Amino acid sequence: MLKILHIAPQNYAGVPYDFYKMHNACGDTSRLITFHKNPLSFPEDICLELPLPDFSFARLWRKKKMRLRESNTPAKAPIFKPKNILESAYFALNDFLKQNLVEETIEKYNLNEYDIIHFDSGLDFYRNAKQAIKWKKMGKKIVCCYYGSDLRLRGLIKEVDAISDLNITSEYDHLYLKNGLEYLFYPYNVNELPERRRHLSHKIKIVHSPTNRKYKGTDLILSVIEKIKKETDIEFILLENMSRDKVLAIKSECDISIDQVGGTMGGTGYGKAGLETLAMGIPTITNMTEEYESWLPENPFVVANNGDELFLKLSLLISDEVRRNDFGIRGKIWVQKYHGYESVNKRLFALYKKYNIV
Q: What SS3 class is residue 306?
């Protein structure tokens, strides 16, 4: 039995928590430590509840860094560096202020007893990675798991990257950003979803639930929906800033889902939102490069990479119930086959063996 510890800045879309649940469900022992509470009420294991800077200057600074990174997207993941002396001082002070809490947490939960440490998003408790380095010297195996925009926007934390025994990702485009990354479908438990409910309305219901409008191409999606409405009587549902339970309940009554189309900096493919609707048997539209579309095994998605393609694919699905049902059935089977706990755990254990972690 392995003892696996996950360290994550936040329970992003519930993905770190799914890894933690998967380990325990498959017979290993796992804990998940998150720094900041998820604002959308995703479940937590052990959350330090550290505050995120949310005053006006901090928000402006984050937006400025985002714009700079978007205008200069590298072919390879950059090495993270503080942008100036103020940012460097902030990280040093933040590390100092959290030290007692981190040390108390490690002692309280016996975290030094864990054999494999997953740094989800490639981040240690401290920006200088001193706890990761300490664990490495104690003989722990270090795994970095990248997903979302961590590599695209922030880049690598060089101190963590230097000691990592295994680097995995659940994002296809990350494979081009860093050499040596191994792809792993993230685990998902379809049993946590509500039952699909058939609505009584004669209108086709189309849902879109972005966590970030810019990443998901929401403005483009809204413009296409307006064109669709001029030709067809549909109901479009935009879900934002809601608890996950409410989001899932609403999705369970929908006919078509749009994950992302034409967004910037969000990569291509699908996220947790798209996986949820697939698992509910709802045909799901997303964008993919040709390479990704042909690489993804038994691809169950409806692919649309621009506004014209989205309009066409939506029109076909709206008018053809048989087509909708076919994509829905294929999606449910595919999620269980590739994202189910047993499948993902088997692949991860194979990677552990390949990299001499077990």
A: coil
Binning pLDDT at 50, 70 and 90, where does residue 150 land?
Answer: confident
**Beta carbons within 8 Å of 60's beta carbon, 6+ residues apart:** none
| Distance separating alpha carbons of residues 177 and 74, to the nearest angstrom | 8
Strands 3-8 and 302-303: unpaired
State which H helix or E strand residue 8 sits in: strand 3-8
Q: Exposure of 343 by Cβ count < 10 A (0-12 exposed, 13-18 middle, 19+ buried)?
A: middle
Name the helix (H) or strand (E) containing 345. Answer: helix 341-354
Determine how β-strand 302-303 pairs with β-strand 284-286: parallel
Q: Which residues pair with 156 in a beta bridge?
A: 79
Q: Could you tell me the fold of the domain covering 3-189+340-354? A: Rossmann fold (3.40.50)
- What CATH number was assigned to the domain covering residues 191-339? 3.40.50.2000
pLDDT at residue number 71: 47
Three-state secondary-structure class, residue 12:
helix
Q: Give residue 296's pLDDT band: very low, low, confident or very high (50, 70, 90).
A: very high
Q: So what's the pLDDT on residue 194?
A: 85
Query: How many angstroms separate the CA atoms of 238 and 194, rounded?
Result: 19
- The pLDDT of residue 191 is 85
Would you list the domain boundaries of the chain? 3-189+340-354, 191-339
Contacts of 27 (CB under 8 A, 6+ apart): 1
Is 182 exposed, middle or buried (CB count within 10 Å of its CB: 0-12, 13-18, 19+)? middle
| Confidence (pTM) | 0.87
Three-state SS at 47: strand
Domains 3-189+340-354 and 191-339 share a fold: yes
